[in-house]
Design a protein that fits this description.
It is an enzyme of class 1 (oxidoreductase). Its EC number is 1.8.1.4. Its cofactor is FAD. There is one protein chain. The protein is 31% helix and 25% strand. With 475 residues, the protein is of the alpha/beta class. Helix 1 packs parallel to helix 8, helix 3 packs antiparallel against helix 4 and helix 3 runs parallel beside helix 6. Helix 7 links the parallel strand 10 and strand 11. The chain folds into 3 domains: 224 residues, FAD/NAD(P)-binding domain (3-Layer(bba) Sandwich), CATH 3.50.50; 111 residues, FAD/NAD(P)-binding domain (3-Layer(bba) Sandwich), CATH 3.50.50.60; 112 residues, 2-Layer Sandwich (Enolase-like, domain 1). 47% of the residues are buried.
Length: 475
């Protein structure tokens, strides 16, 4: 006999578990299905983000940054470190512990909010009695029935034809997070977020890293001035990035991988590495969902087709996160999850794609929200720009990290903030002020007039806003 629910969420990643919690808060009898397993076979909700994405990568970035600082920056503070070593097994163990804390935290939140959790893979069986029958294939098979279903099944790493993941020599983001020893030479195909972050981790720990990118421009989604600054800094860090390459073949040997490619000048090249990370994007995950059983519509890329409110072609079926259109970002999925739960309750949930922040957790960090300068030029929008370097910021000097700048773009007539771009220390935290400002349609003048604590990195944000009107006070 099937178990009855008002809302069933398929997928327990950032979008799914947040949608389930919000639905329960709104009074719905809610269930969440998730199949991720820990190394003991137990439930590990949180999806790609928690298990092999955002959370573990930040743990390794933190560990590798400590190691890098100990080897290079501590001396400037009068701290001597001799015989510096890295215990990779312990570093990976700490990362795994951080992941487990997050897994357990989600299970606790389900219990606190009275969300029924089912460990297994969820799939559609049939439309039934004005709702849908869902099968849970796990240790104990279950059948659920719900009036509303939220599909939050996430995405999988895209494989390069001829270079399928074995997670030993050719690695996805999963394998890149558990390399057992520092490779002497590491290759990365793709200079996106995952490629840059994982390349940074292993470069700091001593690997010689080469990143191969097919596109002719570096960080094409970022503001050009930020991308230019980032390329300069990464080159200085000995992160070798080659643009405009065309991969010819990838060949595995017993303990190495050879990448044959044509460089930007058309010359044939060969790169031999100990490990190869392939990070060329992600594809929607609908494996085992069985959308055919109910007629759920997918597009040519395998994504669930939704409208602006995340409604699918079926009444009562919604989809959010990486499995639908829009940026594949955990926080975008969370916002959609909350909005859908509220729409089911008859409220007016809202997600503003124009104020979704983007962050790359390299050193320096890179973050932005809104339009880039090149987008404004292409759209023919009259704008003003203001920029302030961390080199002139007292807190950045004290930290010993003065790389980068804050850049404001504002409407030439109204002064409304159209975009904010940051490269430098704690950019991931500083960008939130810009997101809030843009949500409230603030002007650059508004930020320029707000009192910021001194000394703080946020003063660079204030000064960049002042720079829009060409009246910085400290530069």
């Amino acid at each position: 006999m099937s178990k009855q629910f008002d809302v069933v969420v398929i997928g327990g990643g950032p979008g799914g578990y947040i949608a389930a919690i919000r639905a329960a808060q709104l009074g719905f009898n809610t269930a969440c299905i998730d199949e991720w397993k820990n190394d003991k076979g137990g439930p590990a909700p949180g999806g790609t983000c928690t298990n092999v994405g955002c959370i573990p990568s930040k743990a390794l970035l933190q560990s590798s940054e400590h190691f890098d600082h100990a080897g290079h920056a501590f001396a400037d503070h009068g701290i001597s470190v001799s015989d510096l070593k890295i215990d990779i097994a312990k570093m990976i163990g700490r990362k795994d512990a951080v992941v487990k804390q997050n897994n357990d935290g989600i299970l606790y939140l389900f219990k606190k909010n009275k969300v029924s959790f089912f460990h297994g893979r969820g799939s559609f069986v049939a439309a039934k009695d004005g709702g849908y029958e869902i099968k849970v294939a796990g240790a104990a098979e279950e059948t659920l029935q719900a009036k509303h279903v939220i599909v939050a099944t996430g995405s999988n790493p895209r494989q390069l034809p001829g270079a399928e993941f074995d997670e030993s020599l050719i690695l996805s983001n999963d394998g890149a997070l558990r390399i057992p020893a520092v490779p002497k030479k590491l290759g990365v195909i793709g200079s996106g977020v995952i490629g840059l972050e994982m390349g940074s981790v292993w470069r700091r720990l001593g690997a010689e890293v080469t990143i191969l990118e097919a596109l002719p421009a570096f960080l094409g989604a970022a503001d050009e001035s930020v991308a230019k600054e980032a390329a300069k800094v990464f080159k200085k860090q000995n992160l070798n990035i080659e643009l405009g390459v065309k991969i010819s073949s990838v060949t595995k040997a017993a303990d190495s991988v050879t990448v044959a490619y044509t460089d930007a000048k058309g010359a044939e090249q060969s790169l031999v590495v100990d490990k190869l990370i392939v990070s060329i994007g992600r594809v929607a995950n609908t494996i085992g969902l069985n959308p055919e059983a109910v007629g759920l519509k997918l597009d040519e890329r395998g994504m669930v087709v939704v409208d602006g409110d995340c409604k699918t072609n079926l009444p009562g079926v919604w989809a959010i996160g990486d499995v639908v259109r829009g940026p594949m970002l955990a926080h975008k999925a969370e916002e959609e999850g909350v909005a859908v739960a509220e729409r089911i309750a008859g409220q007016h949930g809202h997600v503003n794609f124009n104020t979704v922040p983007w962050v790359i957790y390299t050193s320096p960090e890179i973050a932005w929200v809104g339009k880039t300068e090149q987008q404004l030029k292409a759209d023919g929008v009259a704008y003003k720009a203001g920029q302030f370097p961390f080199l002139a910021n007292g807190r950045a000097r004290a930290l010993g990290d003065t790389t980068g700048f804050v850049k404001f773009l504002a409407d030439a007539k109204t002064d409304e903030i159209l975009g904010v771009h940051i490269i430098g220390p704690m950019a991931s935290e500083l960008i939130s002020e810009a997101v809030v400002a843009m949500e409230f349609k603030a002007s650059a003048e508004d930020i320029a007039r707000i009192c910021h604590a001194h000394p703080s990195l946020s003063e660079a944000t204030k000064e960049a806003a002042l720079a829009v009107d060409k009246r910085t006070l400290n530069f």
